[in-house]
Amino acid sequence: MKHLDEYRDPALARALLAEIRRTVTRPWTIMEICGGQTHSIMRHGIDQALPPEITLVHGPGCPVCVTPLETIDRALAIAARPGVIFTSFGDMLRVPGSRDDLFRVKSRGGDVRMVYSPLESLKLAREHPDREVVFLAVGFETTAPGNAMALKQAAAEGLTNFSEIVSHVLVPPAMEVILSSPRNQVQGFLAAGHVCSIMGWEEYEPIAEKYGVPIVPTGFEPVDILQGILKTVELLESGEPGVANQYLRVVRAQGNPAARAVVDEVYEVCDRKWRGIGTIPGSGLRIRDELAAYDAEKKFEVTDIKTEEPAVCIAGEILQGLRKPPECPAFGKECTPTSPLGATMVSSEGACAAYHRYQRIGR
């Protein structure tokens, strides 16, 4: 706990807040990319402690939130089939599809199981050679190496009854969509430290230069986030865009080369639809053609399932930092954590869930 407590030190947090107040001279809008950072900001009251010149908006860094509706519907169709063991991380089980979620499929007799690692799904495939085991592989660059390794291991063992639904997304293309929008309000980013621990920060440098914004890879504890905000404000005030790494204890410029290599071996970059946002070119990963036998969407022939997003949910605007959850007319009314209209309310990292849980109705 010692090494955790030092990043929650109240005295250090107050000192950082004082330094932010001394440094800021004009209004700035900063986006934290990751939903985990959003929840930490709300839980520790950072949004309320910052000087009024700084506005925090919330980005698309919640993998559950941006998984497209049609991917969920395809997963539900597979999970309902006889002979299938459908596996997923727990945060995907309540994400609503068009009419159902995985819990409802399970209640009707579908064999849906929560796993903590894709390796558990591999174990199930070994133990049940007469069943098809499908793993729902979603997430940003953080979870991609583990999911890629599971598929690589299945191929090495010849486990023909294992497959993945892959809906991995990449952060840099989403940043560019936000920054290139005529409605953009974001002037600086807190980048997700766990993503950068895999990918490094070098791929952010061209974005910082092209759009003239600071990008600061940041951790998730209060001191991490406050240090990240301070670094971002210092760069904004100086007029010097660039990348400044706050998460020194975890992140290196080139990230984790071994993890990146296994991702490149198993997956390839593709265009990807983001829930509430639409298709972003070059923003996703898919299984390489030589491993197509492990692609569950092709194996179970569900690629023709297409779904439109509900118009009432403004999650897309929230995920781009254009609006905040309380601005949604359904927030806390038709849409609550127990009856969510969209993934941003049901996900443990969703901005709507954070605002609802910590009762934020203002900034």
Describe the structure in brief.
It is built from 18 helices and 11 strands. 40% of the residues lie in helices and 19% in strands.
Q: Which CATH class of the largest domain applies here? A: Alpha Beta
Assign an overall shape: globular
Strand content: 15-25%
Tally of domains: 2
Report on the biggest sheet: 6 strands, mixed
Q: Stretches where pLDDT falls below 50 for ≥5 residues?
A: none
Mean pLDDT across every amino acid position: 92
What is the CATH architecture assignment of the largest domain?
Answer: 3-Layer(aba) Sandwich
Number of strands: 11
Percent of residues in helices comes to 40-55%
Write up what this structure looks like:
This protein is of the alpha/beta class and 363 residues long. The chain folds into two domains: 1-311, HypD, alpha/beta domain 2 (Rossmann fold); 315-356, no CATH class. 40% of the residues lie in helices and 19% in strands. The protein contains 18 helices and eleven strands. The chain has helices at 2-5, 10-23, 35-43, 46-49, 63-66, 69-79, 102-107, 118-127, 144-157, 171-180, 193-199, 205-211, 222-238, 257-266, 296-299, 315-319, 343-346, 351-357, and strands at residues 28-34, 54-61, 84-88, 111-114, 132-139, 162-169, 188-192, 214-218, 242-243, 267-274, 278-287. It has a six-stranded mixed β-sheet, sandwiched between helices. Strands 2-1-7-8-9 form a five-stranded parallel β-sheet, with helices on both faces. Helix 7 (102-107) links the parallel strand 3 and strand 4. Helix 2 runs parallel beside helix 13 (222-238) and helix 8 packs parallel to helix 9. The longest helix has 17 residues, at 222-238. The model has no long low-confidence stretch (mean pLDDT 92).
